[in-house]
Structure formats: structure tokens, C-alpha cells
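[step 3/7] fold_predict: job queued, chain A
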Amino acid sequence: MLLSVAVWSGATDATRDLFDLISAMIALPVVAYSGQPFFQNAWRALRVKRLNMDVPISLAIILAAAMSLFETLQGGAHAYFDAALCSRFSCSLVATWITARAVLRAQPRRN
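[step 4/7] structure written:
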């Protein structure tokens, strides 16, 4: 998100394009690597013709990254690499919290 500051501050033309390209070089590998659990679960669900929560999450992450890359390569004004990464981080945070809560509830209580 730090690289998006150049865009937020009003940078235009070559400066904006350069920062968008740097953001793309950082964000796309991170999205591809950190999104693997969501992508794998979504793919498994789609293979058996089912939908689960990972399908729309994966779709949103892929579309945000793909549209941002398209806009960057076309010299467009809008790139949302930070949004793709933030949505991925938020989903991971919530999934971790839900898993930890379920594990704690499943443990027997000690008196």
C-alpha cells in the first residue's frame, strides 16, 4: 500500500505508471502464493460442481489482480493491487480467528 501513496498524492503519467508496475511486481507473486489455499479449495469445489465460500473470495482476488494488471499495462488511471492484497489478508485473518475459536470450543473445559 505504500507504493499507492504516489497515486493518492496525485502523481500522474510516468510516475504513476512506474509505481503501478512496481506494485504489480510485488503484489502478483504474493497473491499467487498466499492465495493458494483459497484457490485450491475453490478449484476442488468447482470440480465437483459445488460452491463454497472460497469460490467468490478467489474470484474477487483474481479479478482485482487481473484488472489492476490490465489497467497498469494499458496506462489506466486505476490499479487496485493493494485491494487484492488487503482482501487476501483480511480473509486469512478471519479464517485464522474462526479456526482458533473452533479449536478452543472443542477442547474440554478444566475445572
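[step 5/7] annotate
DSSP finds five helices and no strands in the chain.
The two ends are 47 Å apart (CA to CA).
exit 0
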